[in-house]
Structure formats: structure tokens, C-alpha cells
Amino acid sequence: MNILDKIIADKVKEVELKKSVVPVSQLESSALFERATVSLAEALRSSKNGIIAEHKRRSPSKSVINQDLNVQDVARGYEDAGVSGMSVLTDGKYFGGSLEDLLYARASVKMPILRKEFIIDEYQLLEAKAYGADVILLIAAVLEKAQIRQLSQFAKDLGLDVLLEVHNEEELQKSIMPSLDMLGVNNRNLKTFEVSTDISKRLSKQIPDDFVKVSESGISSVEAIKDLKNYGYQGFLIGENFMKTDNPGKSAAEFIAKLN
Ligand SMILES: O=C(O)c1ccccc1NCC(=O)[C@H](O)[C@H](O)COP(=O)(O)O
């Protein structure tokens, strides 16, 4: 079983357990449920840097990245650096994240926040809204076309932006639909963990212009971003490159200064 299949098998059990403990009515009564969301797609369309900076403690490919930081400090540091948005990993088992991380990040910053999660059920979209996210991620590799349609439409009804992630032509072709805001190409092959921005470049021409193009993973240089911009990318999801340092916000600020 590859890592993605393992994560999804665990996620199915986790979501069923959570549903039995926290009812939908409790999520819907969260103070944040009525909050007006902020569009990441709009922020990327109007921003010069397009950086979506991620809070990521550990990962299946790198093991521990940084367990010493406070999520609120990271979030404030990223916002002060002027990033276009933030991504918060909420998976506990494989990434050391939590919904509480999302809540603390939300309490600290105004910028759009992506709930980075392995979404398989509408319940997780209600959680995203209740804990203050503005955007959700859907991963084409683990969803049927009908699920992408149903989940993305439900997210839009909640006022959430949708970032759909693909890794190859087949995933892209089955996924294109009007209920998506952003199409992300993951440079990391989630089966082998190999990273190459060539896949973002190859798929760029097949992404219709109506969607904001986002290149995800394995980005560590300003040159890579300048190159990807020539292929129409407006968003760049960066985790490890900032999180491996003592001060991710400062690293993001220095990175952005070099981009300008
Ligand atoms: O990062 C991993 O090892 C990973 C493994 C399996 C599924 C997802 C994984 N990462 C999630 C992400 O998409 C990245 O955290 C995100 O794109 C940032 O990547 P990076 O800049 O390379 O940290």
C-alpha cells in the first residue's frame, strides 16, 4: 500500500470516529461558522508574490521538520512577511498537525488560510469552516469525479474556496469543473516522493485560464518561482523550505525580498 492509500485508510476511520463524538450541530454552532471568508484565489490574482506559506511540523517524506515552533508565531511571521496566504496541515498522524493549529492560526492573522487535509467527506468541510479556514484542498488522486463535484459544490455553498490538486494529465482531465477556484499541480509524486517542477510546467498548458494555477511542493528557490511564473502560475505552496528554519516568517520575508 502506498503512503497516500495508508493516509486515506486511516482518515476514513478517523472521520467516522469524529462524527460519532462531535455532531454536525456542534460544528455549525461555532462562532467562526458565520465568519465571512477571505478568498485565496482573489489574493493570488492580485498579489505580486503569490506565496502560500505552510505550517508543517513533519511529513512522511522528511520525518521531523520542526516541532519547536508555536503556530501563532509562525502565522504572524508569515503575515508580517507579506505572503498571499497560509496553509495549515491539520492531519495529526502523519504531519503532527491539528484542527487546534488551524484555530490558533485563524485567531492570529487576517490573511486567507487553507486547511491542508485529506478530505473525503463533507463533515471535514464543516470542520474547516468551524475552525476558521477560508480554503480547502481536494486531492484528485483519492477522489472520484462525482466526489470532487459533490465536495467542491458543498465547499462553495459554505463560502470556502476550493484548491484541487493533481499530479498527472488523467487526474487533471477528470477534475476540471466550474466549482473549483484554483488548480494545483503537486511537484511531489506522492507514491515515490520524488520532486520536480517539470510536472507543473508540463501540465500548465492544459489548465484552462479560468482557474488560478498553483504549483505545490519542493519549491526552494526564487529562480524556480520566476520560471513557473512564465508558465502562468500565480500561486506557490511552500512548506519545508520555510519551516526547516528557526524563524519561518523571517525566511519567507527574505525569500519575498529576493522575488521583487
Ligand atoms: O510532504 C509530504 O511528504 C507528503 C506526503 C504525502 C502526502 C502529502 C505530503 N505533503 C503535503 C503537501 O502537499 C506539502 O506539504 C506542500 O505542498 C508543501 O510542500 P513542501 O514545500 O515540499 O514542504
Give a short overview:
With about 260 residues, the protein is α/β, with parallel strands linked by helices.
| Lateral strand order in the biggest sheet | 1-4-5-6-7-8-9-10
The secondary-structure element order is HHHEEEHEHEHEHEHEHEHEHH
CATH class: Alpha Beta
Number of strands: 10
Number of helices: 12
CATH superfamily membership, which one?
Aldolase class I
Q: What are the low-pLDDT stretches, counting only 5+ consecutive residues below 50?
A: none
Shape: globular
- How far apart, in Å, are the first and last alpha carbons? 43 Å
Return the average pLDDT rounded to an integer: 97
Q: Compounds present?
A: the ligand O=C(O)c1ccccc1NCC(=O)[C@H](O)[C@H](O)COP(=O)(O)O
User: What is the structural class?
Assistant: alpha/beta
Task: Please identify, by name, the CATH architecture.
Answer: Alpha-Beta Barrel
Q: How much is the radius of gyration in Å?
A: 17 Å
Q: Give the strand content.
A: 15-25%
Largest sheet: 8 strands, parallel, barrel
| CATH-defined topology | TIM Barrel
Keywords: Amino-acid biosynthesis, Aromatic amino acid biosynthesis, Decarboxylase, Lyase, Tryptophan biosynthesis
Protein name: Indole-3-glycerol phosphate synthase
Enzyme class: lyase
Catalytic activity: 1-(2-carboxyphenylamino)-1-deoxy-D-ribulose 5-phosphate + H(+) = (1S,2R)-1-C-(indol-3-yl)glycerol 3-phosphate + CO2 + H2O
